[in-house]
Amino acid sequence: MQPSDFASCAVVEMRRYALRPGHFDDLQRVFQPWLVASQEQAGMRLGGQFRDREDPDRFVWFRGFAGMDQRREALESFYYGPVWQAHRDAANATMLDSDDVLLLRPTEPAHHPAAPATPGLPGPTASPTWAVAHVWALPADAGLEAWLTTSGHAVLQRAFGVPVAMWRTEPAENTFPRLPVRDGRFVVSLAMFEDGERWGLAADRLESEPEWRRITARLSEAGVTSEVNHLQPTATSGHPMPAVAGVVEG
């Protein structure tokens, strides 16, 4: 069974590639015309492709699957298929490291991403979208994870004023070991803003939230580390549609 869209995927990969200096565009000349549609045809659903705004040689992208067994089937179909075999050398030549991969699943309750933007169309989908991905590395504490993905999520979404998608580590064994994934427990959030100005206002609101300061203090005491990725969609990115900033409850 193939997922109908990225939002319905039960398993998600967040993939972050370190590229050879100056080779981001070289990778996109292979990825965009050849590797987007072929992965979708193999049963995956791509959830956005991005350039890191603070590291122009880092490519960040998301893809999803109906489940772990379907992930194995889709990856086998793609990586052993003719399109990847024809273009893998050109793609791999641009990369220094492609092993920074998080294997994820929806939180409980689930915080699904919004419907995807349509690349190339005028209007809101063509705005200079500013994507923000937070990644928290957690200790082996299920209670802390549950707290961050419920109370923490509510604070993030209230401060940002836009929908905040969120995932947690998928603990199942990697069904396609040819592609390694990182060990550990992670929580990832993804929020979409129309532009950098709206993100800046949202970040200011978050910093002024007393409850968020309490949350970050507790996370720090527990040894949680975090990073924020500021991302720019590529031309063919099917990232979630940016919402007009406002007050979003829950």
Automatic annotation (TrEMBL):
User: InterPro entries in the record, alphabetically?
Assistant: Dimeric_a/b-barrel (IPR011008)
Q: Which domain of life is it from?
A: Bacteria
Identify this protein by name: NIPSNAP protein
